[in-house]
Each structure stands twice: as C-alpha cells, then as structure tokens.
Amino acid sequence: MEINLAVIPGDGIGPEVTAEALETLRVIELKFGHKLRFTEADAGGIAYDKTGAPLPEETLRICRAADSVLLGAVGGPKWDGLSGDKRPEAALLGLRGELSLYANLRPAYLHEALRGACPLKPELTEGGVDIMVVRELTGGIYFGARGVSEDKLSAWDTEKYSVAEVERIARVAFEIAMKRGRRVCNVDKANVLESSRLWRRVVAEVAGNFPEVELSHMYVDNAAMQLVRNPRGFDVLVTTNMFGDILSDEAAQITGSIGMLPSASLGEGSFGMYEPIHGSAPDIAGRDLANPIATVLSAAMMLRYSFGLLEEAECIERAVKRTLSEKYRTADIYSEGTHKVGTREMGRLLRERLGDSNFTKR
Ligand code: IPM
Ligand code: MG
User: Are strands 262-266 and 103-109 parallel, antiparallel or unpaired?
Assistant: First the structure.
C-alpha cells in the first residue's frame, strides 16, 4: 500500500516522540512491503515563531494533500501571552475544524504490566480497564458563537448542536461498540441543557439502527464519579466536545500514564489525524526523557482506522505490550524493579521487537 503522510512534529517533546513513531513506521513499511512518504509541516508555537501564524496555509495544504496526519504536540509557556487566535492550541482547533475531523477516539486502556501505576484501588481495575471515549470534536461550545461585551464586563460561549452533528458522532460510537463490548454510554447534561436534550434524543434514535448495542444515558457529573468508582462499567462513552475533553483526561489518568495513550480524529472517509493525548511537556523537551509510546500507538491507530492495516497495527501493539512486560520503562512509568530507559532507547526496543519475525508471525 502507498501512503502519503503529513507529519507535524510541533513543539516541546513533539519532535522527539514523532521521530520514534516515524522510525517505527519505517520498520512496518519494510516488513510488510508498503511505501510510506512523509511530508513535514509546522504547526503550533514553532509555526507562530516562523510565520506569525500557528496554523500556516501551507500546513493545511500539505495536510489536505496527504492521506492522513501524524501530529506530535503543540504549545508551551513561551506562547502563553498570545491572544487566542495566535496561541499554539489554535492550530489544533484549526486543523480539526478545517479538516472536518468530527470524531475523536480516545482509548483509555490500562496495560496489565502497568496496573500499579493506576491511582485507583487494585480491586477496581482487576481484569483490566478498556474504555473508548468518543468525543465530538468540531461542534459545541468550542466552535459556537462567542464574544466579550464592549465594556469587557461579560463574556460568552455558545453550546449548540444540530441533529446532523449528533447523528454522525453517535453512528461512529455505535459502529465502534459493535467491534468491542457492544455497550454505549451516552454522557450529557439533559437535566439542564436544551442542547443536551436534543443530543440525547438523537443518540437514542441512532441506537435504533444498532439493536445489538446496549445504550445507557448518564449525566456528566455522575459519569465523572462513575469513572473512578467503577471504570470497568464502561465500554464506549460518547459525548460532546467539552464533556469529552474533560472526561477523556479523567479516563486517561486511570491508566496511570498519559504518556501511553494515543488518539484518532476522524471525519468522513479514511482521512484522519493521529496524535498522542499528552501535551508538549516543555519541561522535559530535548532531554531524552519523554515516553514515545503514545505516539507510536497513534501510528498504530492510523494503520488500523485510516488504512485498514490491522495486522500491522497489532504488530506494533504487541511490541509495546512485550516491551512493557519485559519491564522497560521511561521515567513517567518507571517504578522500582524495572529498567529505566530514555526516549531513543524505548523506540529502539520497540523496533527490535517488531523486527523479531517469530514474534511478528504469532
Ligand atoms: C485536547 C486539548 C485541547 C482541547 C486544547 C489543547 C485545545 O485539551 O485535545 O484535549 O481542549 O481539545
Ligand atoms: Mg484536553
């Protein structure tokens, strides 16, 4: 298969972790006989420094011409003083909006080898936690009308959803549930918000097309509580842009290391943007300390969701599992009795395991 990939390393640890993911993809390319082409583009603080805009037109052009996008991370204290539209985060929102990536998949998977890193009591995670947060990504309060009054004494943002927007994200959630535990929990605030009442009604309607999937509804405050009370109670969680932002961080923390978790942002068709859910971690940038696993797993998600290369994706995921079970750890997931390694070494270990043919054929 021929794949043209736009690569946005971004800021902070972004370039380091992206480099490991690309090298990993090179091993997959060779092993499975694909042809990958990488085109680099700037976004975030680095793009602002070079061009005065966090998301240059050229970057959008490169992304639109590509089959998918792999992104490291954007942001850092250096750009904190900038206005909203110049901040590195504006690049993320711009990419999501401009590329119509309305479905954000954020798996929160607790690796057996890392159960000790989970902050919850061990009996709550026995047998593993495996939640897929499906977050709406191009609507709601993130993209609704906003403003500040002339006297600057009030400001507002608008939560607005259309039937069509809810239908398409609900469909994504149910389709994913069909490939997993066949349970969808819809999270909203329908006891208060009109937009949530519409959201809930439409999700329930879409559920009619998926009779094998069990649908439940939860208010967001309760969901925040249930996630830490009984995380195994969730399979697929579908929710709005804002609630999904918050709950996906909470779900991520249950897995013990945000450095482990990938994400996919999808639209219609096979195009997607893939990125680790962690940020740019400027405090450890350039010091060979970052965990590259989240970005490597994002590349695996890309192979699976955009290109249907399931065997290749599983091959990477198995390499991660094996490296962890052999007790190799970057600083963020290090504990006594394990081997501490840097970013580069972790990447090398993963690739070594990918290259082991006995292992891959399993
Ligand atoms: C995320 C981030 C972004 C968001 C920020 C950086 C704009 O928190 O991807 O979850 O709020 O969507
Ligand atoms: Mg967030």
Answer: antiparallel
Domain membership flag for residue 114: no
Rounded to 5 degrees, what are φ and ψ at 63? -65, -45
pLDDT of residue 358: 53
- Residue 188, helix vs strand vs coil: strand
Whether 113 is in a domain gets the answer: no
**Identity (one letter) of the amino acid at 149?**
S
280 within a domain of the structure (yes/no): yes
Mean per-residue pLDDT of the chain: 96
Considering the entire predicted model, what is its pTM?
0.95
* Helix, strand, coil percentages in the chain from 3-state DSSP, rounded to 5: 50, 20, 35
What backbone torsions phi and psi does residue 240 show, to the nearest 5 degrees?
-75, 175
What CATH number is attached to the domain comprising 357? 3.40.718.10
254, 286, 311 - which closes a domain: 254
CA nearest ligand 1 atom 1, residue: 245
Ligand nearest to the CA of 74: 1
Look at residue 111 and tell me if it is in a domain: no
What b/e sequence results for 165-202 when a residue is b if at least 16 CB atoms lie within 10 Å of its CB, and e otherwise?
Answer: bbebbbbbbbebbeeeeeebbbbbbbeebebbebbbeb
Domain enclosing residue 247, as ranges = 119-254
Query: What are the Cα distances from residue 31, in Å, to 3, 127, 311, 354, 361?
Result: 15, 33, 11, 9, 11
Q: Please tell me if the CB atom of residue 245 comes closer than 6 angstroms to any atom of ligand 1.
A: yes
Q: Which pLDDT score is estimated for 113?
A: 86
State the CB neighbour count (10 A cutoff) for residue 140: 24
**Residue 89 near ligand 1, beta carbon < 6 Å:** yes
Q: pLDDT for 165-185, tens place per residue?
A: 999 999 999 999 999 999 999
> Is the same domain home to 275 and 346?
yes
Q: What percent of the chain has pLDDT over 90?
A: 93
